[in-house]
Design the sequence.
C-alpha cells in the first residue's frame, strides 16, 4: 500500500508560485514540495537536537573520555 496523503491549503508568495509553475513540471510538483519540506523539516530536527545536546551538556555530570569509551564498550558488548 502507498503512503497516506493529505491535501493542504496554504499560501505561497507569488514569485515562488511562478518559479514552481515554470521550473517544475505539473505532474511532479507535489513530489517536489514533499521533498523540499522533508529537507527543511530535517534541518529543523537537527538544529533542535543540537540545541538539546548543548543544553544537556551544561547540566549533566562531567565525564572523561575514558568514561565515555568504557560506557560505549559496555553497551556494545550487551547486544
Sequence:
Amino acid at each position: 500500500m502507498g503512503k497516506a496523503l493529505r491535501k493542504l491549503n496554504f499560501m505561497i508568495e507569488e514569485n515562488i508560485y511562478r518559479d514552481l509553475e515554470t521550473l517544475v513540471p505539473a505532474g511532479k510538483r507535489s513530489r517536489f514540495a514533499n521533498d523540499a519540506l522533508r529537507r527543511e523539516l530535517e534541518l529543523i530536527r537537527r538544529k533542535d537536537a543540537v540545541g538539546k545536546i548543548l543544553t544537556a551538556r551544561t547540566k549533566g555530570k562531567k565525564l572523561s573520555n575514558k568514561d565515555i569509551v568504557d560506557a560505549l564498550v559496555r553497551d556494545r558488548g550487551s547486544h
Summary: The chain has a mean pLDDT of 91. Residues 14-77 form one domain.
